[in-house]
Structures are given as structure tokens and as C-alpha cells.
Amino acid sequence: MPALTAWAIRLALLYLLVGFTFGGLLLFHKGVPLRPALWSLLPAHIEFLLIGWTAQLILAMAFWILPRFRGGSRGPAWLAWLAFAALNLGVWLVALAGSFGLSASLTLAGRLAQALAALLFGVYAWRRVKPSGA
Ligand code: HEM
């Protein structure tokens, strides 16, 4: 497994763990009220599980399994590393802004970072979307 995939899956699993923990706390709180402030975890719960876990796992696997170029190369991996960095920056900006009630411009910056991650990964992967052996 390439290093980028290994690191991205490790990060995705950490997001899964924290996201599920926040979800479990919220679910428990709905049954046995603990602290209303727990609801501030909801934005982070959603961001960690939808983007940090689901989207990151998909991109990590795509980097690993998409057809490679002749000689086994995966092409300019630095572009994919940049995409993962932008994705995780976006997750944290949106989660922190949502959970701590920070300015909407921080949420916007986070979404723009995620959009950039999608663009960078799309540009990187475009040439690898080809019939095997081609
Ligand atoms: C990959 C898995 C998951 C994803 C993508 C996810 C996503 C979401 C989303 C999008 C919402 C907001 C729903 C809304 O506003 O209507 C939400 C709410 C919530 N989630 Fe999750 N969730 C996941 C797993 C879990 C798990 C495992 C738990 C509990 C153990 C959990 C507990 C909750 C609770 C308690 C709420 C608040 C519901 C409410 O507004 O009353 N979630 N989740």
C-alpha cells in the first residue's frame, strides 16, 4: 500500500473514532440529558464522518487502486499529497468554526479548501482513469 494511502486511512479511522464518539455522546444526551452544550459537537460529528472518514477513505483507495502508468508509476504523487492536506485543513476549519461558533468566513475558507482538494485530486487522477494496461 502506498504511504499516502496508509496515512490517509489512518487519519480516516481517527475521524471515524472521534466522529462516532461525538455521535454516541449526542445520542446518549438525547436519552439522558447531560449538557446542552454537547450539541456544539454536532458540526464536528458531521464533518468528521462525511468528509474526514467517508470522502478521505474513498480518495485514499482511489490513489492506491487506479490503474498505474507503464513501469508501475502513480504519477505526480505530490499533487495528491497536496489534495489530502487541503482536505484535512478544510475538515478542521469547518469543524472548529461550526463547533465553536466562529465566523462564517472560516467555514467558507474550509469549504474552499475542500473544493481545492477535490480539484487537485481530480487533476491528479484524471490521467489514471484509463483501461488497465493502456
Ligand atoms: C458515517 C456515519 C455517520 C454519519 C455520516 C453521520 C452524519 C450525521 C448527520 C449528517 C447528522 C445531522 C442530521 C440532521 O441534521 O438531520 C447527524 C446527526 C446525528 N448523529 Fe450522526 N452520523 C453518523 C454516525 C452516527 C453514529 C454512529 C451515531 C451514534 C452512535 C450518530 C449520532 C447522531 C446524533 C445523535 C445526531 C443528532 C440527531 C438530531 O439532530 O437529533 N451518528 N449525523
Structure description:
By secondary structure, the protein is mainly alpha-helical. It has one domain. It contains four helices and no strands. Helix 1 (3-31) packs antiparallel against helix 2 (42-65), helix 2 (42-65) packs antiparallel against helix 3 and helix 3 (77-99) packs antiparallel against helix 4 (104-126). It is elongated and about 60 Å long. It starts with a helix and ends in an 8-residue tail after the last helix. The structure holds protoporphyrin IX containing FE. The site of protoporphyrin IX containing FE (HEM) has 12 residues, from helix 1 and helix 2.
Keywords:
74% helix, 4 helices, mainly alpha, 134 residues, binds protoporphyrin IX containing FE
* Unreliable residue stretches: none
Query: How is the biggest beta sheet arranged?
Result: none
Query: How many distinct folded domains?
Result: 1
> What is the residue-mean pLDDT, rounded to a whole number?
96
Derived from helix and strand composition plus strand pairing, the structural class reads mainly alpha
Radius of gyration: 17 Å
- Residues in helices, as a percent range: over 70%
Give the ordered list of helices and strands.
HHHH
- The number of helical runs is 4
Number-wise, the strands total 0
Percent strand: under 5%
User: For the terminal residues, how far apart are their CA atoms?
Assistant: 22 Å
What does the overall shape look like? elongated
Bound molecules: protoporphyrin IX containing FE
